[in-house]
Amino acid sequence: MSSDVTLGSTIRSEWIKFRTVRSTIMGVVITFVLTIGLGALITTAVRAHWPTMDPARQLTFDPVFASLSGILFAQFAVGVIGTLFITSEYSSGSIRTTLTAIPNRLELVWGKLVVLVASMFVVTEIACFITFLMGQAIFSGVVPTASLSNGAVLRTVILAGVYLTLLSVLGFSLGLILRQSAACISVFTSLLLILPIIAFLLPQSWQNDISKYEPSELGHAMISVTAQSNDFGSWTALVILSIYVAVVFSVGTTMLIRRDA
């Protein structure tokens, strides 16, 4: 039976799993709520306080980043989606059935990766474009706005979805390594929240050199129209984050192949 298994059939079976699992559906809903809902809330607050805002802040205000600020919360939701895509099978014991049906573990990992990346890219891009357009509509007439006709703005909105997609793959890769949902979510959260706090406690001369390599700071650079003084440019940040994810994914894949189920 295993001889009939192909990458295409693996992708189809993993797609059925992905779209029918309750945790995935809830994760996607939460991603939309956090990205769009909080983005609308924050842009509404900015519009309300714009007349009293400090002129210096008004001059440096980034309407694109403000409208996409819900991503700072949605990044945890996509990480959980990626994590549960593999750890839920370990917690339920169904991973043994999966490996029996698809004995080629490398093929299994690539099948899951294709489904995860394709699904999350579509979901996050839709969410990012909706929240951007909604934010600019809220700002209209009061706060300076941005347009997708501007190449830098369009790039930023697209990279916002790419950033969230990469984080979902990072969560999935951690799941391959740790196999336990709680442990993976703890590590994922620590990378985005605790690591910046640790860097903040370092001497000031080190902070600027170290902080720009943090995953969350790379994401900040990707969703900013203009690079901050201490950050990488958006494309450089994308390359570095992609390398991080590729390394963790490679380690996770190797461990899946070499370890028992």
Write the layout of secondary structure elements.
Blueprint lengths: L6 H14 L1 H28 L5 H5 L3 H5 L3 H22 L2 H7 L3 H35 L11 H28 L2 H20 L3 H8 L3 H8 L11 H25 L3
Helix pairs in contact: 1-7, 2-5, 2-7, 5-7, 5-8, 5-9, 7-8, 8-9, 8-12, 11-12
Give your account of this protein's structure:
The chain is mostly helical and about 260 residues long. It has twelve helices and no strands. It has helices at about 5-20, 20-50, 55-60, 65, 70-90, 95-100, 105-140, 150-180, 180-200, 205-210, 215-220, 235-260. It starts with 6 loop residues before the first helix and ends with a helix.
How would you characterize the largest beta sheet?
none
Question: Which stretches are low in confidence, meaning pLDDT under 50 for 5 or more residues running?
Answer: none
Helix content estimate: over 70%
Number of strands: 0
β content, as a range?
Answer: under 5%
How many structural domains does the protein architecture include? 1
Question: What structural category do the secondary elements indicate?
Answer: mainly alpha
